[in-house]
Amino acid sequence: MNARLNHAQPYALGLFRVVVGLLFAFHGASSVFGLFGKDATSAGTWPGWYAALIELVGGALILLGLGTRTAAFISSGSMAYAYFTVHQPEALLPIQNQGEGAAIFCWAFLLIVFTGPGAFALDQLFTSRGSGGAGRGSGSGSGSGEERKEQSAPVAA
């Protein structure tokens, strides 16, 4: 059972990244463009419009798996800022201050920073081309343990 779950881990992480990135991008799009029944935030207003832009662009990058760890780090920081400046002054706990979304997004993005993009990420296309295929998946948290062992094993000439 553990072997099957370990084999599926990069795919589960990739699917998690896609869903979280899509939800975050939708949230940003609703604020930037006034979609989904929400009024658009006035362009250039601090901090709302800039936060919405981070949500839209960061969510799209995370969804695609492009610059994933950097985009997730910035998005996580944005949600931490939102939680502590908007929600936390209202009450201590997220359930009291309606900050559950900001808190969950913050921790989800922090998880992506440390686990990498998983499967289905565009990052993998660029790392495999840039290193001739030898670095496929390295540093991205994707691939099985066997692939990582093969990559780190010295090659005898």
Helix share bin: 55-70%
Strand content: under 5%
Q: Class by helix and strand content?
A: mainly alpha
Extract low-pLDDT stretches: 133-157
- Rg computed from alpha carbons, rounded to a whole number of angstroms: 18 Å
Number of helices: 7
Average pLDDT number: 85
Cα-to-Cα separation, first versus last residue: 38 Å
Main sheet record: none
Query: Can you count the beta strands?
Result: 0
| Helix and strand pattern | HHHHHHH
Shape: globular
The gist of it:
The chain is mainly α. It has helices at 2-33, 48-64, 68-87, 94-97, 100-115, 122-130, 145-152.
Describe the protein.
- The protein is mainly alpha-helical.
- The protein is 68% helix and 0% strand.
- It has 7 helices and no strands.
- The radius of gyration is 18 Å and the shape is globular.
Key terms:
globular, mainly alpha, 157 residues
Topology:
Blueprint: H1 2-33, H2 48-64, H3 68-87, H4 94-97, H5 100-115, H6 122-130, H7 145-152
Helix pairs in contact: 1-2, 1-5, 2-3, 3-5
